[in-house]
Amino acid sequence: MRDFTIDNLTEIVLEEYGSKTDDPRFRQIITSLLTHLHAFVKDVELTEEEWFKAIMFLTRTGQTCDDKRQEFILLSDVMGVSMLVDAINHPKSGKGTESTVLGPFYVSGAPEYESGASIIKQQYAEQVALVQGKVVDPDGKPIAGAKLDVWQTAANGFYDVQDKSMPEDNMRGIFTTDTEGNYAFVTEKPLSYSVPTDGPVGELLRASGRHAMRPAHIHFIVSADGYESLTTHVFSEGDEYLDSDAVFATKSSLIGHYSESEDAELAARYNIPVPFSHLQFDMGLMPS
User: Fold this and answer.
1) Backbone φ, ψ for residue 217 (5° rounding)
2) Residue 149 to residues 3, 42, 101: CA-CA distances in angstroms?
3) Per-residue pLDDT at 93 exceeds 80
4) Residues 223-275: pLDDT tens digits?
5) How far apart are CA 64 and CA 81, in angstroms?
6) Minimal CA–CA distance to 72: which of 244, 63, 219, 221?
7) pLDDT averaged over the chain?
8) Which single residue of 10, 50, 60, 222 has CA 20 to 30 Å from 106?
9) What's the CA dihedral at 271, 273, 278, 281 to 10 degrees?
10) Are 136 and 282 in contact, with CB atoms under 8 Å apart?
11) Cα–Cα distance measured from residue 157 to residue 123, given in angstroms and rounded to the nearest whole number
């Protein structure tokens, strides 16, 4: 009979998990995870009280998740893990638009709209914003029929799934590019907002002395046949939280400029009042 001790336990655990699976990728992942986890426990000399506290933290994180809130994604985001996974899987190519995190409030099945339609079902901002651009390939040629799934907070700082007073699918929609690769939609100019702090992630941020703010942005998932799907944000130029995003998701190439427009002809085309905010931002997809 073997005695399990601090000196041999890690080696025995790795042998058990690494020698009995036929999946080489699973073997690589689980043995690396266990190696680092055991090393962490030894390094900080974790107490039983601290380990139980960690277990209860993860338990409450799971209990906070439901069909409208994904606290584990938020936890991954605020720890920088989501961005690290994104960077590994989507290295910058120099041509396609850079990706960033999905975030915890994506909801599939948003309504599809005609180009130029508004995603505002309940308006909070005094002024609307017109967002336009092209979806292009690495050579700058337009991609017709590309889908843009867009979502954002309302100007009150909440997503529709957070605020029960909002109509369903407020500030969400799917748009399709025309034959020239153009897209357009009407929305509210996004504002910076706080990630949820009423759960375990909020406890972690407070214990770490970190703020919970995200810079203003619009989420995009851009897809087209024959191209890699792109998950990204467009951030607002000049936002005070660009350098301290709570989820480490900002990239300089994803910063968009909103101009104040009094173009009456453009306003009439999209049935919006003057003045309005105007963002022009092109998206580049890479072949799959």
Assistant:
1) -165, 160
2) 56, 45, 14
3) no
4) 999 999 999 999 999 999 999 999 999 999 999 999 999 999 999 999 999 99
5) 19
6) 63
7) 96
8) 60
9) -20
10) yes
11) 12
The tens digit of pLDDT for each residue in 29-63 reads 999 999 999 999 999 999 999 999 999 999 999 99
Whether omega for the bond prior to residue 275 falls within 30 degrees of 0, making it cis, is yes
Paired residues of 69 in beta bridges: 66
Name the token pair of 273.
């009042």
Angle between helices 48-64 and 200-208 (to 10 degrees): 130
Query: What SS3 state is found at 132?
Result: strand
Which residue has 């690495």 as its token pair? 138
Q: State both tokens at 280.
A: 């022009």
pLDDT at 16: 92
Amino acid at 137: D
In whole angstroms, what is the distance from residue 124 CA to residue 33 CA? 46
